Amino acid sequence: MSENLPPCPACSSTFTYQLDALLVCPECAHEWSPDAPSGEADAVRDSVGNILQDGDTVTVIKDLKVKGSSSVVKVGTKVRGIRLVEGDHDIDCKIPGFGQIGLKSKFVKKVSE
């Protein structure tokens, strides 16, 4: 533990260490940038690192199988008005033809409006 490194923002562990440009927590494996303003370290990010917010429009970057169905959400599907939620599937949205669905942020890219 180094005296000049901040505690982990996810679990408050004091055993953080620096790995290249990121800070890493060995207890919960959370990684964050020491230069990020407070609040941005825990922000939900898309597949290329853009910060997502409620109401954003995103596109799906790969075909996604819908669990419990034979349907597939195709690559390039545009999703408007997303809502960020806690959990593994951190985006809650409505896709035309599928209805209400949860997506993982690593499978979407923010659309510039």
UniProtKB/TrEMBL annotation:
<dbReference type="InterPro" id="IPR013987">
    <property type="entry name" value="YjdM_N"/>
</dbReference>
<protein>
    <submittedName>
        <fullName>Alkylphosphonate utilization protein PhnA</fullName>
    </submittedName>
</protein>
<comment type="similarity">
    <text>Belongs to the YjdM family.</text>
</comment>
<dbReference type="InterPro" id="IPR004624">
    <property type="entry name" value="YjdM"/>
</dbReference>
<dbReference type="InterPro" id="IPR013988">
    <property type="entry name" value="YjdM_C"/>
</dbReference>
<feature type="domain" description="Protein YjdM N-terminal">
    <location>
        <begin position="5"/>
        <end position="33"/>
    </location>
</feature>
<feature type="domain" description="Protein YjdM C-terminal">
    <location>
        <begin position="44"/>
        <end position="111"/>
    </location>
</feature>
<dbReference type="Pfam" id="PF03831">
    <property type="entry name" value="YjdM"/>
</dbReference>
<dbReference type="Pfam" id="PF08274">
    <property type="entry name" value="Zn_Ribbon_YjdM"/>
</dbReference>
